[in-house]
Amino acid sequence: MKLKRSLRDGGVLIGFGVAFYLLTLLVRFFGAPDTDSVSSEISFDRRQAELKYSQKDWETAVIHFAALAKDDPFNGHAWYFLGFSYDSQQLPLYTQVNRERRRTNPDQDKITAWNAELNRIMQQAIPPLKRAIEFPRYRNKARFRLARMHAYHGDHKQAFLFLREALEDGFHSNYRSGIRDGGIFEFSGIRDSEEFNELFQMERVNSQRRRRNRPF
Fold this sequence. Notes:
Layout: H1 2-30, H2 33-54, H3 58-71, H4 76-88, H5 91-101, H6 108-132, H7 139-152, H8 156-168, H9 178-181, H10 194-213
Helix pairs in contact: 2-3, 3-4, 4-6, 4-7, 5-6, 6-7, 7-8, 8-10
């Protein structure tokens, strides 16, 4: 009886093994074209987005991050870096404006034109950054970036709103000297205000709390 039972159990195991092997061959042969196609498309956009981000090719990065966000509206990474890539397109224009302002006789027409272009780009950056606020991982980074843009363009009310929300949520900048002394040129128009100093003190508290809670 034991011999028959062993032979029977062995036969069942062999049968399962053969069936599994045949199933594997069928999957390999026929595949799943629809799933593979979608995965390949997403992977391509993700690879290209990260590549163009690393190369600081912001205009091309926008295309691929936008594709990722469209494909998956709950992709917080795509929304934040879509806004980040738009915002980063402003950097060369910031440099031109600041350089022109330091001249003995600055050309106000050039400054006005560059600021108009900066404002246009900012309007593109705002929607994805606001969407990124919905995702905890990117919430305060998005608020901080929005605060900087609004401060530069003179909307101090919105700048303080986003900055306060971020700091009340525990945010602290990566600038060693903080938001007041960290050389953040966008804040130059609000840096001397009482409200900004209050927020700077709030950031210091956040930084101290983070250092205390840092694991050894």
